[in-house]
Amino acid sequence: MRILVTGAAGFIGGHLVTALETRGHSVVGIDRRHGTSTAEIDRLRRAIGANEPELIVHLGASCSTQFSLANPAQDFHDNALGTFNVAEAARLAGGIPVLFTSSVKVHPGEDGLIAPLGQSKAVGEQYLRLYGDLYSLPHVILRPSTVYGPGQNGTSESGWVTWFLRAFWNRQQITIHGDGTQSRDILYIDDFTALLTDIVENFDAYQGRTYEVGGGPGNELSLLDLLHAWETDTGHRPDVLHDERLPGDLQRVVTDNTGISAVRGWKPTVPWIDGVRSTLDWIGDQW
Predict the structure, then answer these.
(1) 122-174 pLDDT, tens per residue?
(2) CATH code, 2-282
(3) What is the domain partition of the chain in residue ranges?
(4) Helix-strand-coil percent breakdown of the chain, rounded to 5?
(5) First vs last C-alpha separation in the chain
(6) Residue 57, helix vs strand vs coil
(7) Biggest CA-to-CA distance, the chain
(8) How many whole angstroms separate alpha carbon 257 and alpha carbon 262?
(9) In 10 A of CB 258, how many CB atoms?
(10) Beta carbons within 8 Å of 153's beta carbon, 6+ residues apart
(11) Under 8 Å between Cβ of 248 and 105
(12) Using one digit for the tens of pLDDT, what is the confidence trace for 227-281?
């Protein structure tokens, strides 16, 4: 199968390209870091025309809440416009199916607000549904909770699990926005990649729906839980600074995977403690 992956140079994209190629698929990856941004529709259409994909996996995006708050125009450009362009290019190419990774941040936070990142992702979702209704464009939308694991850079702005682990390793100060009790059902990259691969290979079974996806109740982890786990394992107390909570921040995300599991039985398999330790081992191997 010929598949085009946007954001292929990113954390999830890199894992997915490897998994698809291992299973014998022909994969073309595009990424703004390599000169092809989904926000530039002419380049996107040329890439589609040259490679004639049978399916598009749209992962390319800006993923930082903090960046979106500081630069909402760029966030809109990267996410809302980028996803609109994917839908339009897929339509013009004859209705290529699109698998879109949105975000759980489309939901309002504890303060009732949605950060620009969540809004731009929601706009992308709305356009895909509109194109499904008006032009019969096949699509699947995923709203993942926190995805983490080896290969993720992790910074103070995004990828908090890996950022915390990297900061622990390097004895760097960690800034927590709020009291640290906010939690996510974190999802290990191998589990998420397995789901994406199954959707690619069985698209019709999932088609036309929006799915919440996460690690589930057994993988719920707060920021303070991760700090405590590190301190317990190593005997070192992390250097933590508390700052104001970010607007639109979600207090608790625990995904009900019933909808996605009902399609073909996918479930997360990696417990958070194993995934965190594997990620920490990978960080250690880099040094």
Answers:
(1) 999 999 999 999 999 999 999 999 999 999 987 766 788 888 888 888 888 88
(2) 3.40.50.720
(3) 2-282
(4) 50, 15, 35
(5) 38
(6) strand
(7) 59
(8) 8
(9) 10
(10) 11, 159, 162
(11) yes
(12) 888 777 777 777 788 888 888 888 888 999 999 999 999 999 999 999 999 998 8
